[in-house]
Amino acid sequence: MGRALLSRLRNLVRRLRGAYVEYHAVSAYKLPATGLLALIAFPFYYFIWAYVFPQPYENLTLRVVGTALCIPVALRRYWPRHLITYYLPYCYWSLLFVGPVFFTLMLLMNGENSVWLMSETAIILFTFLLYDLANGVLVSILGVLIALIGYWLLSGQIDVPTEFLLLLPVYGFILSAVVFLSHSERVIARDKLIAARALASSIAHEMRTPLLGIRLDANKTRDHLERLSAVNQWAQERGYDHTLSDRDMVALSGALQRVDKHAVAANLVIDMLLTNLRDESYSQERMKFYAIASTIDEAVGRFQFRPGERELIEVRVCDNFIYQGVEILMVHVIFNLVKNALRAVAGGDGQILIEARTTSAGHILSITDTGPGLEAATLPYIFVPFVTGHAATGGTGIGLSFCRRVVEGFDGSISCSSELGKGTSFEIRLPIVEAKRLDAADAASALSSPAMPQARSGG
């Protein structure tokens, strides 16, 4: 019961974090602009409310703290590369303070006067410009609760002002209206995404038919080529002109093999596209136990490498750990990460390392390349759908969002670190499976198939 509740809480946090990151991926300059606006507004309005139109309560310390918190928000481009992944979480909590917390606290301390009533209304609407729907509601509620605690500490009173309680139905109506309107927009956006997925899936399926025809024709032609080779040799022995040389016959055979290989590779790309677009579920009934070494072997063995690409990859299994998941989905995760790594080292002499190891914190599967690296501004949004660091080389931004969805469905996490000129590393962290769960799974497998019990590594 406790583990299930903890897992649900983790999934909720992941969904909220993912929604916040996706919300800001489409408008990366909204947060720096907000930080700059707050840098100007906080000291300016302190002067207005303290000296020009004095209000019952002002607090210079809170203004200074709010201004200081907004400096890193405004100066995103100057964040160190190794800290840039913390930019969005920092914005989340700092804007919570300078927005709902500060404005609600000032409303309470000023006796709910008209100036701060209008200011509070404005900040509620402004909050939903800076947060997605779910996080906007959460931040608004958290802001009120934290502000109440601050009010009790600053005023010495432990009761909630009646005037403030009278405002709650009004602000509740505003929140409800925002939620309703935002939900309608989300339904429209979801329907568009479903239609786009259906169209992409239809196109991908339609491509299978000609690819199958190409493979069949190539294989049939190769069968005829064997007879043609025998006839050609017979003609050569009798001195006939216009026969094909042995080199020509080898070239024809190689061309047919390449045609078949290209068709197989195209089918694999279609499989990856369809898998990436599919909205998978991760019920406990579907997830089984697998050894990571066999999953890596399956992925590397099935991947359609171009000439010379396989030699760039080193597989290092330091610990052949057991993970719980769906193997075909993990194989496609490795497909996507290897494809990205190969794209990064294309045209160069880079190397790719696939490494599996176990630490005290959990199991780790990492895929590292020595390519040119990714821009720091891209890193916080790298797992957002349709955001890609390889747009110039054909990246679509679908694969990495799929990887995140799958890994988090396995109760794991995926992160990316990169340095310009040195390369990129994707690190998948998976939870350590308890021994008693493995023993129970082995027992269940033995009962379901007593004549031939399943190996633990095969699921």
How would a textbook summarize the main sheet?
5 strands, mixed
Poorly predicted segments: 445-459
Helix content: 55-70%
Strand content: 5-15%
What is the strand arrangement across the widest sheet? 2-4-5-7-6
Count the DSSP helices.
Answer: 12
GO molecular function: ATP binding; protein histidine kinase activity
Transmembrane segments: 21-48, 90-109, 138-158, 164-182
Pfam family, one: HATPase_c
InterPro entries: HATPase_C_sf, HATPase_dom, His_kinase_dom, Sig_transdc_His_kin-like_C
Concise summary:
By secondary structure, the chain is an alpha+beta fold.
Write a structural description.
It is a single chain. The chain has 12 helices and 7 strands. By secondary structure, the chain is an alpha+beta fold. It folds into 3 domains: 2-160, no CATH class; 207-277; 288-458, Heat Shock Protein 90. Helix 4 (87-109) runs antiparallel to helix 5 (114-130) and helix 9 crosses helix 10 (327-345). The chain is elongated, with a radius of gyration of 30 Å. The relative contact order is 0.07. Residues 445-459 have low confidence and may be disordered.
What descriptive keywords fit this protein?
3 domains, single chain, 5-stranded mixed sheet, Heat Shock Protein 90, disordered C terminus, 7 strands, alpha+beta, 459 residues
List the helices and strands and how they pair.
Elements: H1 2-25, H2 30-52, H3 60-74, H4 87-109, H5 114-130, H6 133-155, H7 162-237, H8 246-277, E1 288-291, H9 292-302, E2 313-317, E3 322-325, H10 327-345, E4 352-359, E5 362-369, H11 399-409, E6 413-419, E7 423-430, H12 435-448
Helix pairs in contact: 2-3, 3-4, 4-5, 4-6, 5-6, 5-7, 7-8, 8-11, 9-10, 10-11
